Amino acid sequence: MTSRGPGKRVRKAPAERRHEIVATAARVGLTEGLECVTLRRVADELGVRPGLVGHYFPAADALVAEAFTGATMAELDGLLPEPPAEGDGPTPAGVLRRFFTLISGTEFDDVSRLWLNARHLSRYRPVLREHVVAQELLWCRRFAGVITDGTAAGEFSCPNPWAAAARVLVAIDGASTYINTSAEHRAEPIATMPRTVAEAELGLPAGALGPG
Amino acid sequence: MTSRGPGKRVRKAPAERRHEIVATAARVGLTEGLECVTLRRVADELGVRPGLVGHYFPAADALVAEAFTGATMAELDGLLPEPPAEGDGPTPAGVLRRFFTLISGTEFDDVSRLWLNARHLSRYRPVLREHVVAQELLWCRRFAGVITDGTAAGEFSCPNPWAAAARVLVAIDGASTYINTSAEHRAEPIATMPRTVAEAELGLPAGALGPG
DNA sequence: TGATTTATTGGTCACGTACTCAATAACATT
DNA sequence: AATGTTATTGAGTACGTGACCAATAAATCA
């Protein structure tokens, strides 16, 4: 990809270089796993010497953590966009319908793998752990916000949006847990569960958040 | 632990040695993580040279996979014992009550970590992957068996035990996914969910599978 | 234009891993 | 008691990792 002859130096503004390092690390982490996010791997990807990446990230843990946050933050904004400050965005039910449609696609598989990856790796890497906790709470907060909006608009009936969001996320994360193993063996009962749980939590009839 | 002077050799029957290697690997994997299951680590634990472990497991992947199966198999038998061939064991509802009580305890945390660990690692290690798939299906089958028994006995009402078991396991695995990260931040809504899902799936009133 | 800062290079270091293989010693068999 | 089998050792290779540091060249500033 990015290759140039040896010795030829390209000097960039620190902010720009740092940003492209994190972006590359996020891409590697998302597609190949966070343990592939190493100084050498990212450097190769950028056509740069490992020492340079080490210069921006003296501790490799920080790079892995930022890679995770970068990838999941982008994904969250794609799945559950923050509602516009004022005026009329899409209806909460519409937002959720779109959300459940998107996470059913195979494009979401890499994201499932990334979360699984990060949650396990957090056992050993405290810096990553903090980032994962922050993202988990952010996703929950974002989802709870949609529920709150929908309840205010009379679309949903939900006494405790935060707890309901947490439970829907349990279903989503539980269903995506098998992504590397027996997912296809039990596809049918598993895949439909998150949407069903959401409908139950929001007091909606079965199928209300379904496609079409 | 097991230490003896250098050079002193203890020669054991292959079956016995192999068994103690797997048992040690299972213990290390359960308490410290499957990436700590290395030839050297297991050898140190046994007071033996790394080459010996390598002799029994020419590929380290196989050792990790067997360590996982050993640990989860023991756990399953502790949580959901296979019913006696004939005669009267405990009632299915009683079995499930006991099950949900046990997985609520902190002793189950290591098991949660192990599953998370194994499911991620399966991404890279095909041998482990097969073992994890087998265990996932076994747990599901075992759970479905209890549901089937309870339905036959008139305790439960469940049209599809296999699918119901799969969904309850989604709730359990989803709830335990946060064990290394934000588990304690959202303990309340998350911890109660598996039992609630089970009660709904089995047509039981809320709290029917609760403690006491 | 000359001086200064610093982004970038290139190399080294110690560590831990799996894997290989010849030599050895404990056991079993005759 | 001698022999054969093999479980076990000990040393070695090759690889990938994070961390460290002096030298260098590109950009900026005086």
From TrEMBL, chains A, B:
Gene3D superfamilies assigned to the protein according to its UniProt record, in alphabetical order: Tetracycline Repressor, domain 2
Question: Key word DNA-binding present in the record?
Answer: yes
Q: Which domain of life is it from?
A: Bacteria
Which InterPro entries would you find in this protein's record? Homeodomain-like_sf, HTH-type_TetR-like_transc_reg, HTH_TetR, Tet_transcr_reg_TetR-rel_C_sf
Which keywords does this chain's UniProt record carry? Answer: DNA-binding
Molecular functions (GO terms)? DNA-binding transcription factor activity; transcription cis-regulatory region binding
Instruction: Give yes or no: UniProt keyword DNA-binding.
Output: yes
Q: Which residues bind DNA?
A: 38-57
Where in this chain does the entry annotate a coiled-coil region?
Answer: none
What Pfam families is this protein classified in?
A: TetR_N
Q: Where is the HTH tetR-type domain?
A: 15-75
Full protein name: Transcriptional regulator
